[in-house]
Structure formats: C-alpha cells, structure tokens
Amino acid sequence: MQVTFCRLRTHQWCFILFNVILFHALLFGADFVEQYFLHSLPYVDMKVLEIKDKARKLNMEPLKSNLSKYYVLSQSEVCKGKKIFLLSLVFSSPGNGTRRDLIRKTWGNVTSVRGHPVLTLFALGMPLLVTTQKEIDEESNKNNDIIEGLFLDSSENQTLKITAMIQWAVTFCPNALFILKVDEEMFVNLPSLVDFLLNLKEHLKDIYLGRVIHQDTPNRDPHSQEFIPLSAYPEEYYPDYCSGEAFIMSQDVARMMYVVFKEVPVMVPSDVFVGICAKSIGLIPIHSSRFSGKRHIRYDRCCYKFIFTSSETTDAEISLAWKEINDGKECTLFETYYGLISCKLLTYLDSFKPFHMGTIKNNAMYLGD
Ligand SMILES: *[C@@H]1O[C@H](CO)[C@@H](O)[C@H](O)[C@H]1NC(C)=O
Ligand SMILES: *[C@@H]1O[C@H](CO)[C@@H](O)[C@H](O)[C@H]1NC(C)=O
Ligand SMILES: *[C@@H]1O[C@H](CO)[C@@H](O)[C@H](O)[C@H]1NC(C)=O
Ligand SMILES: *[C@@H]1O[C@H](CO)[C@@H](O)[C@H](O)[C@H]1NC(C)=O
Q: What is the pLDDT of residue 364?
C-alpha cells in the first residue's frame, strides 16, 4: 500500500488534492458564501430614526396596569431587578407538558454561561379545553416559567403569539440583552449560542440573527393551506428573514418591532412577518449556518457541541445530547472537524428522505381519490 501510494505521479496527486478540496468546498463553501454575502450593515433613514425614537420612549405602564387584558399567566415578576443576558422563550403548545418537563431537565436548565445569566420561559396561548388549562395552572404554580397569552393557541394564531411574546419581553424583561425565540421541538445548545453572542461584543444592538432564508416566495397555489393571496402580500419575494424555528433579536430590535407591528400585514407566515418588521426598521438579518432551521442534524457529540440548534429532536436525543455535552469532555479541533463533516454529510443525505416520503404520500392520496 505504502509503495503504491509513493509511486503516484504528480497529476495523480493533483487529482486527489483536487477532489479533497472540491469535497470541502461543496460541504462548507455554501456556509461561508452565505455568511459573507448576507452580512451587511443596517441602513438608517428618517423613518427608521422616528421608529428608534418611538421605541426609546415606549411607555408600557398602561399595559402593566391592565395585565389581564393581554395575559392569562403573566410571570410579571420573574425578570424584575435581574440582569439577564439571554432570555429564551420556548414556543410550546398548551397540551405538551411532557416536552416542557424534558426541556426543564435538559437544555433549559442552564441558568448561566460564563457568569452571564440565562433565563428560559415557555410561551403558550390558551388551550381549547378547560381541563388542559387546569393542568397548565398547576404546572405554572410549580415552576413559575409559563407565560400564557390571551388568545387561542392555533397554527393560524402564531403571528399573534410572536407579537404577544415580544410585547411581554419589552414590558417585563427590558433588562434582557438578547431574546431567543425557539420552538419546543428544537434542541438548543445555549452555551455555544451565548459564547457566539459574547463574541459580537463590538455591537450588541441591531441584532436579528438566525438561519436566513433568502428570496423566499409566497405560496400562490389557491388549493394550498398556506396560500397567500396577492391582496395579502403583493410582492414577488419576501424580504430575507430568519427561519422561525429559532432566531435571536436584541432588546432594542424587540422594542422597534413592537412599534411597527401594527403597520405590517399579518396574513403571512409568522417568521416572514418578523422579517417584514425587521425590514421596515432598516435591519438586515445576520446569517449563521450553526442554526439548523427546519433540518434535523444527525447526532454526533462534537457536532452538537458546536452547532446552536437542531430541529425535530426526539426525547431520547435531547437527553443524550444534554448528557454528553455536559460531561466535561472537550472536543479537539480535529474531532470537531470530523464531527461536522459526518453530521453535515448525514444530514445532507437525510434531506432526500422526506422528499421521497412526500412523493409517496402524495401518490397515495392521489390513488385514494
Ligand atoms: C389600562 O389602564 C390605564 C390606566 O392605567 C387606562 O388609562 C387605559 O385606558 C387602560 N386600558 C388599556 C387598554 O390600556
Ligand atoms: C438544574 O440545575 C440546577 C443547578 O443550576 C441543579 O441543582 C439541578 O439538579 C438541575 N436539574 C436537573 C434536573 O438536572
Ligand atoms: C386566534 O385567537 C383569537 C383570540 O383568542 C380567537 O378568537 C381566534 O379564533 C383564533 N384564531 C384561530 C384561527 O384559531
Ligand atoms: C410535544 O412536542 C413534541 C416535539 O415537538 C412532539 O413530537 C409531540 O408530538 C408533542 N406532543 C403533544 C401531545 O403535542
């Protein structure tokens, strides 16, 4: 083996080298290119200055004095007088107490990273059933970490949920430097996320960060459930926005968003709604490929130590990831590199699966007609 390897000619070596480079370029290139092109500075004009001024002068006192008009459970005291670096709001469905318990026991149990306080709370709307509400009340009394807005928690009301929760953060947690919106099916590596935010230290303002979706188009198929009529959104493309499974905004951005909520069309998907708000305050979303977006990242210890989120994680995976990330074993540069390659490749291969399953399901439905 050794001998044959040494006998390779120059052009053969070149060929191998070329392939190695091509392999890496395909695997990581897109991330770097995206990161480079999607990173530009926010713009400021008179309208944005006006919004910034309004955001500075926001008075949330009237809301505090009629709390019951907006929230069933308000947790109005959890942030009081505390300095919070990152407030994570886990968007949870009312009936999913088991998932919330799992998050409390695993990644949501982080209260501080390198001395920077982190607070995890659950964001809910109202359930359909009175019995579910009773369970939520009990859960809330026990844990004091549930915010429940005064609206029905349905898929159509997700935009309402985001506005209610940003309103909550601005009103009751104005000391939180950053706010993370994350869905309950995600695994979040809070320590690596906080580390990343700490490295942004030059500017802690104007941050709207996540996996950026570029030039997405509205669904114009009238038979689809996600149909967006021209009257609701006339333009061809959505502005760049952060995929809704997990994204971060700084407190000043949350305040500005609160100012512009009422001027933005609500009939679009909730993450697009946030993107349109961001655009109207002159923000350009910052992309990081360490956010998974909708994709499930195949489990690998060193990969999970590096990334920020993974979608559609099972209970067992969350427990395992949490345990292994906290076992104190560090990953060497090579292990991280190897982990990223393997989880990226496997995730890439996985991306073909739902496509086939979708096709099969569609065909089955077609045959069933
Ligand atoms: C809330 O309470 C304030 C008094 O603190 C009152 O002026 C206001 O009209 C009330 N209602 C709303 C919707 O803010
Ligand atoms: C959560 O963290 C606290 C300390 O911050 C610890 O005392 C507690 O045992 C942890 N809970 C679980 C379920 O790991
Ligand atoms: C959204 O919430 C409002 C307020 O609770 C409710 O009246 C409405 O039916 C909800 N919409 C949907 C589609 O669930
Ligand atoms: C709870 O959430 C998990 C993760 O999103 C999901 O797999 C599960 O079906 C949910 N359970 C209920 C009862 O909603």
A: 38
CATH class of 22-368: alpha beta
Q: Please state, in angstroms and rounded to a whole number, the distance separating the CA atoms of residues 188 and 103.
A: 10
- Phi/psi of residue 77, nearest 5 degrees: -105, -10
Q: Ligand nearest 148 Cα, by number?
A: 3
Q: Which two tokens stand for residue 66?
A: 């009629």
Residues (pLDDT < 50) of the chain are: 1, 356-369
Q: Which ligand is nearest to the CA of 99?
A: 4
Per-residue confidence (pLDDT) for residue 205, from 0 to 100: 85
Ligand 2, atom 6: closest residue by C-alpha: 109
Query: Ligand 1 center to residue 305 CA distance, Å?
Result: 47
Domain positions in the chain are 22-368
CB 274, CB 257: distance < 8 Å: yes
Looking at residue 36, what is its pLDDT? 59
Q: What is the pLDDT of residue 164?
A: 96
Which ligand 3 atom sits nearest the alpha carbon of residue 154? 14
Residue minimizing CA distance to atom 12 of ligand 2? 105
CB 161 within 8 A of CB 286: no
By the 10 Å C-beta count (0-12 exposed, 13-18 middle, 19+ buried), 99 is classed as middle
Nearest ligand to the C-alpha atom of residue 164: 3
Q: How far apart are CA 42 and CA 74, in angstroms?
A: 33
Cα dihedral sign, 307-105-351-19 = positive
DSSP 201-229: TT--SS-EEEEEEPS------TTSTT---
Q: Taking the model in full, what pTM does it have? A: 0.86
Substitution candidate for ligand 1 out of 60, 61, 65, 150 with most atoms within 8 A of CB: 65
Q: What is the pLDDT of residues 37-87, one digit of tens each?
A: 555 566 678 888 999 999 999 999 888 888 889 999 999 999 998 999 999
Protein residue with its CA nearest to atom 1 in ligand 4: 96
